[in-house]
Amino acid sequence: MKSNQILVITLSNIGDVIVTTPVMAALKSQFPEARLTVVCGPRTVSILKGSRMIDELVVYDKHARLSEKLKFIIQLRRKKYDLVVDLRHTAIPYLVSAKQKSPIFRGGKVLPLHEKHLVILKAMKLSTEIRQRFDFFTPEEEASVLAKIQKRGIRADASWIVIAPFAASELKTWTFSGFKALVTQLLESFSGEILLVGGEREKSMMGSLAQIHPQRVINLAGETSLRELSALVNRAALLVANDSSVVHLGFEMNRPTVAIFGPTDPALSGRKGPRFRVAQHTAPCVPCEQAHCRLDRRVCLDDLAPETIFQACQELLSHALQSSS
After folding, report:
1. Which of 127, 161, 171, 251 has its CA 20 to 30 A from that of 155?
2. 142-180 pLDDT, tens per residue?
3. CB within 8 Å of 316: residues ≥ 6 apart
4. C-beta neighbour count of 140 within 10 angstroms
5. Distance (Å, rounded) from C-alpha 180 to C-alpha 309?
């Protein structure tokens, strides 16, 4: 089947969108000449804008006025799509012209995230083979972030560990004292730099981590775009992060990643492989999958020992050394 115009309706959170990028890559692998239009939320533009795989990015704001939503639909209706792949169960496929649309009913089976999205392609009798992975950064974005770290005294060809100590939810964020202990242990066993990443509001909070060794622990919070961060992760010897969009980024880019999980179930994220490790405390209430902790303290994260995470880091770093030798 020939497809010249493809429309993909993706999700609204950055981490969720990163998990859907294999769908875009599979579609472009099967239909390399097709024009791919992606509908996304305002928050996810930062990771998708600039991708050479996407020909057009259309932003849909569910909080917009009705007149703006009508303009959005009119914009999409101007084209006749060969395929519409809806990853979030919207009415959009039925408001635009399309030869083939993703099914409404997709079964009641609970699947890991990446399987949940790719199974939609299978239901449409489309290939899930990926010959070219999604491009999370451009050469220009890579050059930009390398120039930034070189100003901080880090060579572009250096070896570094990327650590993201914060998550969007406090319930998913490991203890700061734990990260301090982990950074100290990594400095003793790893000869390169440790790059701390996060948002501008987290910069001052990361200052005490950087003070452990100011020459080797570099606070980059608020200094990189998400796509520039992707370029750093792509060159990292190791990524350590809470259950967040950064974890999904590391996995999709096939980088050695240690994911710190608290109340959520890592099995549902579908992340596993030789370059991926999950660090999670073992307790009767873990995972609870609750939005709020029902106990007086977060057992899942407060009792997660730094040694558990350090051991996972050591495994991946050792594996990388063996692979390169």
Report:
1. 251
2. 999 999 999 999 999 999 999 999 998 889 999 999 999
3. 238, 256, 257, 258, 275, 277
4. 10
5. 12
Say yes or no: 174 and 231 in one domain. yes
Find the DSSP H helices in 167-210: 176-189, 207-210
Cα–Cα distance, 256 to 161 (Å, whole number): 10
Q: Which has the closest alpha carbon to 60: 46, 70, 49? A: 70
Half-sphere exposure of 114 (CA within 13 A, CB side): 18
Domain span at residue 266 reads 141-324
What pLDDT is recorded for position 325? 43
Q: Encoding tokens for residue 39?
A: 């509908």
Backbone φ, ψ for residue 297 (5° rounding): -155, 155
The DSSP element (H or E) to which 217 belongs, if any, is strand 217-219
203 and 291 fall within a common domain: yes
Helix (H) or strand (E) holding 8: strand 5-9
What does the pLDDT look like over 269-325, one tens digit per residue? 767 889 999 999 999 999 998 888 888 889 999 999 999 999 999 999 987 655 554
